[in-house]
């Protein structure tokens, strides 16, 4: 992927923060999943835990330190609810779309 090292490091830090945030909200979770999806113009990471029935997203989300950290590290942050529990989607854009010959 055409992504600078700093971009990869930012995404790695964002994944760490998302994992810590999810586990802090649901300590009873027994599994965590990370899905990475490389696309032409971005790399997408989705972190989820198995904690169905939790209130998600948390109140005052935009005021939390975790939200501010995630928003500073990646281009797009979104919160989803999967069947197994809450998830956080992180998107980091590449420098330019990859080209195939």
Walk me through what this model shows:
The chain has one domain (5-93): 2-Layer Sandwich (Heat Shock Protein 90). The protein is built from 2 helices and 4 strands. A hairpin with a 2-residue loop joins strand 3 and strand 4 (85-93). The chain has helices at 5-25, 65-73; strands spanning 32-38, 42-49, 76-82, 85-93. The longest helix has 21 residues, at 5-25.
Question: Into which percent range does the helicity of residues fall?
Answer: 25-40%
- Beta strand %: 25-35%
Can you list the strand order of the major beta sheet?
1-2-4-3
Total domains: 1
What is the correct CATH architecture?
2-Layer Sandwich
* SSE sequence, one letter per element: HEEHEE
- Corresponding CATH superfamily: Histidine kinase-like ATPase, C-terminal domain
Query: How confident is the prediction overall: mean pLDDT?
Result: 87
What structural keywords apply?
about 100 residues, alpha+beta, Heat Shock Protein 90, 4 strands, about 30% helix
Topology:
Blueprint: H1 5-25, E1 32-38, E2 42-49, H2 65-73, E3 76-82, E4 85-93
Antiparallel strand pairs: 1-2, 2-4, 3-4
Helix pairs in contact: 1-2
Summarize this structure briefly.
The chain is of the alpha+beta class and 101 residues long.
């Amino acid at each position: 992927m055409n992504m600078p090292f700093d971009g990869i490091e930012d995404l790695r830090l964002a994944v760490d923060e998302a994992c810590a945030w999810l586990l802090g909200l649901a300590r009873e979770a027994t599994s965590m999943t990370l899905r990475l999806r490389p696309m032409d113009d971005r790399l997408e990471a989705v972190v989820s835990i198995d904690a169905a029935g939790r209130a998600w997203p948390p109140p005052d989300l935009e005021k939390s330190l975790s939200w501010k950290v995630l928003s500073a590290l990646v281009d797009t942050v979104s919160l989803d609810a999967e069947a197994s529990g809450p998830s956080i989607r992180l998107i980091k854009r590449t420098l330019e779309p990859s080209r195939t010959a």
